[in-house]
UniProtKB/TrEMBL annotation:
It comes from Zygosaccharomyces rouxii (strain ATCC 2623 / CBS 732 / NBRC 1130 / NCYC 568 / NRRL Y-229). GO terms for molecular function: basic amino acid transmembrane transporter activity. Residues 35-555 form the Major facilitator superfamily (MFS) profile domain. It holds the Pfam family MFS_1. It is a multi-pass membrane protein. This is ZYRO0G03234p. Belongs to the major facilitator superfamily. It is found in: Membrane. Keywords: Membrane, Transmembrane, Transmembrane helix. One of its GO terms (cellular component) is fungal-type vacuole membrane.
Length: 562
């Protein structure tokens, strides 16, 4: 029988529970390797693509002489990823797992192809936005399909394995991106992904044969009545709200108009979800109680992690003058910690004798605390490390958390900080996903998994954009003060043309100014990086408090039950 195909005898003529049990047994009996290969190859390419872009975006922006717009390279992908990811959960429930995955592959491949021909940051960002439409679906549909072919107890282990694949892609993306951009150029990086994603589509078409009782017969899947269940209006208004927040924070446009636009979009979203949507993209009831707290922690953790993923390569390249290839080696280690954290958490969940839901919440608290320690360590190390000036780099003695640029210790500590952030994030994702699988019926798992990825995506798009915007805005003010303020460098006369060139192209710093001025201006860059850490640290503290409340609420509800 074909992918997700309804039985020859309609479900209403049979006992729904017995049919669901029959299909569940069938799905559990499916050979896992072909299915997982089909799912995880796409996830691997998606994760590889993400860290490649994080590593090369500064170089791409410099090539277009638009360094001040680099945040849109990352944000455009994450924005559409956020908007469309939850829709794939519903799409997979009304058209089948296979069709939803093939749709995701199509948009991802199209976006990669268009990226090859970009001639500006705006065109690059638009192509990445198309890519993001598919990227969100690849991850969400893969996670949903894995839940279909395993038990709840096994789900943590399989998520751990999935994160190994995801982490391996992240691990290789930085070095591969750095190597290729230094040899054949960034356009070829995206071109080579197109045939690979086409091969993923072939495997998906061949191997995804999951059966589900709640999916309509083939003849009814693409009718207007069925497709209208997708909450297009809710998703569109959610995009309006997120775009409004991003434009308020990252542009000089009229704040009153943007704020009004955002508030109207938010009210429209609430009204749509409350009164008009047949099946909401975000059921408001999920914002209550433990599920609401869990959602908030997921947003906060994603904000922290993606802010660090896209901030760290810029620090290595701009302040410490590392090549893109060498930067890729440094971002490799946090990617490895994603895989390690996933396996450790999945194994712990599989073998625990505690209540599974309660244990998941304990892991969430531990994970967000680990991220806070990583952020604090990164802040202290960056604050105490001198920028790399070149051949004339300072070689002063190393004191407590005070390092010269050529010291190995700051590199070890900063990489360790990144590993702690990534390790905590991977553990939190596994624990959150398992708690979802354990708490809902099979027919609701796809939708709720899509919503879980929605929270993850909202955190990632806000974390990436706002972290880079805070850095860029702080840098703009700091450089102006350093070049033209009362405490400017008297040894060199700066011009406004040099200032605007420096804002547009960070590589202009080392190619144009004398060594003494480079050292002086790099302190402004370092200070801007430190300022960009403060929101993440504050949100990590909020996450710890929220996790503690989550555990308390869960304990209280369990006591009431008994």
């Amino acid at each position: 029988m074909d992918d997700d195909t309804a039985p020859l005898i309609p479900p209403e003529s049979r006992d729904e529970e017995s049919l669901e049990a029959e299909y569940h047994r069938y799905n559990l009996s499916l050979p896992k390797l072909p299915i997982l290969t089909s799912l995880w190859l796409g996830s691997f390419i998606g994760s590889l693509d993400g860290t490649i872009v994080a590593n090369i975006m500064n170089r791409v922006a410099e090539e277009f002489e638009e360094s001040d717009k680099k945040q849109w390279i990352a944000t455009s992908f994450l924005l559409t990823n956020t908007a469309f990811q939850p829709l794939y959960g519903k799409l997979s429930d009304i058209t089948g797992r296979r069709f939803a995955l093939l749709t995701a592959h199509f948009f991802f491949g199209l976006g990669c192809l268009l990226t090859c021909f970009a001639q500006s940051v705006e065109q690059f960002a638009l192509a990445r936005a198309i890519c993001g439409i598919g990227g969100g679906g690849i991850n969400a549909c893969s996670s949903i399909a894995v839940s279909d072919i395993c038990t709840a107890k096994e789900r943590g282990s399989y998520q751990g394995y999935a994160n190994i694949v995801f982490g391996t892609g992240q691990m290789l993306g930085g070095p591969i991106g750095g190597l290729l951009i230094d040899t054949i150029g960034w356009r070829a990086i995206f071109a080579v992904q197109v045939p690979i994603i086409m091969f993923c589509s072939f495997l998906t078409y061949k191997n995804i044969t999951i059966k589900l009782s709640h999916i309509p017969p083939v003849s009814e899947r693409f009718t207007w009545m069925n497709l209208s269940r997708i909450d297009i209006m809710g998703s569109s208004s959610l995009v309006v709200v997120i775009c409004g927040i991003l434009f308020i924070c990252s542009t000089n446009w009229n704040k009153v108009i943007l704020s009004t636009f955002t508030i109207v979009g938010f009210l429209f979203f609430i009204v749509t979800e409350t009164y008009f949507a047949k099946e909401c993209i975000l059921p408001l009831k999920l914002l209550k109680g433990a599920s609401g707290l869990c959602s908030l922690v997921t947003v906060l953790s994603s904000f922290i992690t993606f802010g660090e993923i896209f901030r760290a390569p810029i620090y290595y390249q701009v302040v410490q003058d590392m090549s893109v290839t060498k930067t890729g080696l440094f971002v490799l280690f946090p990617a490895v910690s994603v895989a390690v954290g996933s396996v450790v958490t999945g194994t712990a969940l599989r073998h625990t004798k505690l209540d599974l839901g309660h244990y998941c919440y304990l892991i969430i608290l531990r994970s967000i605390f680990t991220q806070l320690i990583g952020l604090l360590l990164a802040y202290v190390v960056i604050n105490g490390t001198e920028p790399t000036i070149g051949a004339s780099s300072s070689t002063f003695a190393v004191h407590w958390f005070q390092f010269s640029s050529d010291s190995i210790w700051w590199k070890i500590l900063l990489v360790s900080a990144g590993c702690m952030v990534s390790y905590g994030y991977s553990g939190l994702l596994v624990a959150t996903l398992v708690s979802i699988v354990c708490s809902v019926e099979k027919s609701e798992q796809a939708t709720l998994t899509g919503i879980f990825y929605l929270w993850r995506s909202i955190g990632s798009v806000l974390g990436t954009s706002l972290t880079l915007v805070i850095y860029e805005n702080s840098l703009t003010k700091s450089l102006w003060g350093a070049m033209f303020g009362s405490r400017n460098d008297d040894s060199y006369h700066y011009t406004k043309k040099e200032y605007y060139n420096l804002i547009g192209d960070s590589s202009y710093l080392r190619s144009h100014f004398p060594v003494q001025s480079i050292e002086y201006l790099l302190k402004a860059y370092r200070g801007s990086f430190l300022i960009s850490y403060l929101p993440s640290i504050g949100l990590a503290i909020l996450g710890i408090v929220t996790s503690w409340v989550l555990i308390t609420v869960n304990r209280f509800s369990r006591q009431k039950t008994f």
